Task: structure prediction
Amino acid sequence: MPRPFWRHSSRWGPAALLVGLLLAAWEAFARLTAAPAWLLPAPSAIARAGVAAAPLLAGHVWRTLIEALLGLALAVVTGVGLAVLIDLSAVLKRALYPLLVVSQTVPTIALAPLLMVWFGFGLLPKVLVVALVCFFPVAMSMAQGLEATDPDLNALLASMGASRSQIFRKARFPGALPAAFGGLRIAATYSVIGAVIAEWVGASKGLGIFMIRASNSFLTARLFAAIALASVLSLVLFGAVLLLERLALPWYFAARRQERWEDIR
Amino acid sequence: MKASSRWLSLAVAGAAALTALALSACVGGQRQKVTLMLDWVPNTNHTGIYVALDKGWYREQGIDLEIIQPAESGVEQVVGSGQAHFGISFAEWLTSARAQGVPIVSIAAIIQHNSSGFASPAEKGLTRPRDFEGKRYGGSGLDIERAMLQALMACDGADAGKIEFVDTGYADFFVVTQRDVDFAWIYYGWTGIEAQVRGLPINVVWLRDYLECVPDYYTPVIISGEQLIAEKPGLVRRFMAATARGYDFAIQQPDEAATILGKYAEADPELIRRSQAWLSTRYREDGPPRWGYQEADVWARFIKWMADNGLVAEGVDPNKAFTNDFLP
Result:
C-alpha cells in the first residue's frame, strides 16, 4: 500500500522549507537593493515573466522534451547493448571499456557544433548529443549490475543444467536491472541539459534557443524562467524513471519491503 | 530607487576592487588593469586594439589591457554590470540593451558605414532583394533579421513572407549555403573577403544600397558602462587615446597592421591581409573629423527605425546611446 501524500511531508518538508527560505531571501535581497531587472530579477518577477511567456514556451518545452526522451531511449539501447557485450567476453571488455571512459572525456560542448555540421539543424544532432551524454551512466551501471551477480546463483543454475543464455535471461539480466535503473536516473537528469546544450549551437525551437533569445533580448527574468523550467523538466524525467522502475521491477521492491519488515521485527 | 540600486553595484564593485588590489599588489606596477570583451573571435574589426596593445600604447597610457573573447553573447550585460570596462557591440544590440535598462554607451564607431549584406553563392543568382522570394535564409532567428529582410524586400516590391527562415545559429556561411540555405547575412569585410580568398564567387545585396528603407547604422562600436564613464572619465579617455592611435595606424599601414593582428588572430594570414586592405579604407570613410566619430542623426534615424518596426519600445534616447567626448 503506498502511503498517502501527506505522510511524505516529513521526507519532503525540509527540502521544501529550505527552497522556500532561499527564494524568500532572494526576493528580499532583490527588493531591498532594488537591483535592476536586467541584472537580478526577483523570483516574483521571474514567475510573472514565465507566466507571460507561457504560450511561447509551450512549443519550446515540448521540443526539448522530445529531444531528451529520444536521446534517452537511444542511450538506453546503446548503453544496455554495450554492457551486455562487455559482459559476454573478456576480450570485448578489454577493448570497449577504455573507449567508453575516453568517450566521457570529450567535452560535449565541443562536439555539438561538429554534429551540427555533419547532420544539419534538425532533431538528429540534438538526439545524438543527449545520447552521448546519457549512455555512459546506463552502460556503466548495467555492466556493474551484471558483474555483481551472485556467483552461488550462477553455480546453482549451472548445476541444474541451465545453459549460459538461460542463466543470463533468468538471473543475471533481471538481477542487473536495479543497478541499471540507478544509472538511468542519473541519465534522465542529464538528458535535459544535453538537449539544451545541443540547442545552443543552432536550433529553431527548444528551451536552449529560448534561453539564448531571452539573453540576447536582455530579458533576464525570462532567462531565469526558462532555467527553472529546464530544472522542472529534469525532475519530471527523474520522477518518470522512478515510476517506471517501480512498475518494471515489482519483485525487487516487494523484496525490499519484505527486508524492511523483517528488520523491524 | 537609483540610490539603493547603487548598493548592489557598490558591493560588486567592492569585491572587484579588492581582487584588483590584490592583483596589482602582486604585479607591483601602477598600471591599471582594464578588461575589454570582444564580440567574436579576433578579426580585422579589432585591428586597432591589437596594434595599440602590441606597440605598448595602452601601457604608455597606464593601462594593462586584457582582451576576453565571449562564447556566445553577453558582452552588453558584462560591460553594463561593470565586470568588463569596455566591449565590442553593435548599434542594434546596444539599442535593445538600452531599451531593457542595460546602462551601456557607444564611445566609438569602428567603421563609419554598415558593411554588411545578404550574401549567396553566385550560381544561385540572387542579386537583388526581389530574388529572395521563395528562398531559404539561414540566420540566428533574431527579430531584427526578419525586420531587415522585410524592409529590404518591401523596398524592391517583394514580400519577405515568402522567405523560408532556417535557424543555423552561428554556423559557417560556406557550410550552410552549400547545403541548408540559399543566403545568409554576412560582414563583407570578413566573410566576403574569405569568399575571395577561397575563390568562391558570391553575390551580395548590400544594406548600404537600400538606405531609404533601412537607415545606415554603426556596426561594430566600442562600448563602455555609464558608471565607468561618470566615475573614471580619465581612464576612458586614456583608453580611447591608445585605441584611436591603433586604428589610425591601421588606416595608414594596412599591411603592417595585418601582420600584427596575425600574431593574435587564429585565421588564415592571407584572409587577414586582404580583409585589412579592404577595411583600412573604411574605418574613416567619407571624412569624419576623426576615427570613431558618430553622428547624432545616424543614431536617431536607426533607433527610430527599430522602434517603428517593433524591435524596441519607443523612448530610447539616441543622445544617451553614444558619445564622442572620449575621442582624442
